[in-house]
Amino acid sequence: MSPTFYELDERALARHCAAAIAAHPATGRFLALALGPSDPTADVVRTIEPQLQAVVSSNREHEKRSIFLLVLDRRTGLPAAAGRVVDGGGRALDDAPERIGRELSAIVDAHELHEGKIWDVATLGNLSGYRDSKAGLTVSALLARTLVLAGHRAGVRHLVGLLDQRTHRTLALLGVPFVPMAGSEASSRALYAPFPALEPAIAEQGRRLNRLAGSFTGEIEARGLRRLVIRRLAARMSEQVATGQGLDEHILLPGLERRRYRGLRKRG
Fold this sequence. Notes:
Blueprint (H helix, E strand, L loop, with lengths): L9 H14 L6 E6 L6 H7 L11 H5 L1 E8 L4 E10 L2 H11 L3 H8 L5 E10 L7 H21 L1 E7 L2 H10 L4 E2 L9 E5 L3 H13 L13 H20 L7 E2 L5 H10 L1
Parallel strand pairs: 1-8, 4-5
Antiparallel strand pairs: 1-2, 2-3, 3-4, 5-7, 6-7
């Protein structure tokens, strides 16, 4: 089978990453971008999506309505994390009715999806070399904050997603206020969150995690001293994502610049 148009080989992927880093010079090890579907650098995200253990939609309409999130490591010149959101609800709203046994109209009514922009969190995660390290925490925070800033720029009101276990656990511990769609079983991981509630909920999660005891959303499986260390690190990440402190200066949203975004939609 011949490769699809977006499957970059190693050299091409490195060239795309180098071009993006050169086009956005700044201080700091990491650079985070939100990219439109016609941006050549979006092919980097398309290429590495399977490494996130995500089910990637081949729907052409979803492709045209995608915004791609990418964190690049200036030290290696390669990707550290990536994600994709799909305007209009994407695969989440296409596939959720069968997964949870509810009509689409019931999902729409349950979450008042009749009005406002809907984003499907189709993929979101760190590559394997950035999952269990201090650098990985920075990368995770940048990726999540880029989602928040891009959503604000685009005027998003609703988030939906059919999340894999790793992504669900990460976002739950961050404090994203996902609930099961239309009262479905939590195990389905068909989820909904009101976008305006993201930053307040994530900020509250940071405050809860900063306490030595007390409840919080999500899970920390470690015990003893390691649990306290992870809790403190998770608190720091939630605080950063909620406020943008130490992150926003490393995030750019070229795919959501107003003129450019309108142009992409007209051509789509």
